[in-house]
Specification:
Helix content is 32%, strand content 20%. By secondary structure, the chain is α+β, with helices and mostly antiparallel strands. The chain folds into 2 domains: 12-18 and 135-193, no CATH class; 32-132, no CATH class. It has a 3-stranded antiparallel beta sheet with strand order 3-4-5, with no helix packed on it. A hairpin with a 4-residue loop joins β4 (102-104) and β5 (109-110).
Length: 193
């Protein structure tokens, strides 16, 4: 089975919004390995960039998964050379004349997307990045800003527990790979406003 097929089979739907999917972090780490990366790279890229799989594993597993889900893993070399890492995600189009120049949330500009010469493919990257960006939740009360395109990492929503004038509260289970500091069996209340 191809890496594309393996990743696609691992995608989970968010039970609150069925059109939003996420790739659990445990599946990302299990499927993106040195060997699977090597199998996806063109022979010439492998020959002249023998440490590329290690760089992907260290810095860009999510970026590589996005490219595989697009059917374009060959682009990883240029993106890594420009310095794109998972920590730069999510990206967005830079305001201005060229929609193929992308910028990170911290303001780092990435021009190598422009070499694709395909605005539709760049747009597909921007859409598919949300598959690997489901947050890791913890009990610290840390404020997390989520884009409306980002899936919440819930495995199931059991029931509505309360309804107010302006909100509905559901009881749900967070995917184990997307929680820290919780006992995995705890069911968290989830408010939807």
């Amino acid at each position: 089975m191809s890496l594309f097929q393996q990743l696609r089979l691992c995608l989970l739907e968010c039970p609150l919004e069925s059109q939003k999917k996420f790739l659990p972090l445990n599946d990302l780490n299990e499927k993106i390995t040195r060997d699977s990366i090597k199998r996806e790279l063109p022979p010439m890229t492998q020959r002249f960039n023998c440490n590329l799989p290690d760089k992907v594993l260290q810095h860009a597993k999510k970026v590589f998964a996005i490219l595989v889900l697009m059917g374009e893993p060959r682009y990883i070399k240029d993106l890594l050379q420009e310095g794109l890492k998972d920590e730069h995600l999510p990206l967005q189009s830079k305001r201005g004349d060229n929609p193929n120049v992308l910028v990170s949330v911290h303001g780092t500009t990435f021009k190598s997307f422009d070499t694709w010469k395909n605005e539709a493919r760049v747009g597909e990257f921007l859409e598919k990045q949300w598959l690997v960006l489901a947050p890791v939740l913890d009990p610290t009360g840390k404020h997390i800003i989520l884009d409306t395109k980002c899936a919440l990492p819930f495995q199931c929503i059991d029931q509505k527990t309360d309804r107010g004038a302006l909100s509905i509260v559901y009881k749900g289970t967070v995917h184990p790979a997307h929680q820290q500091g919780f006992k995995v069996s705890i069911i968290l209340p989830l408010g939807v406003y």
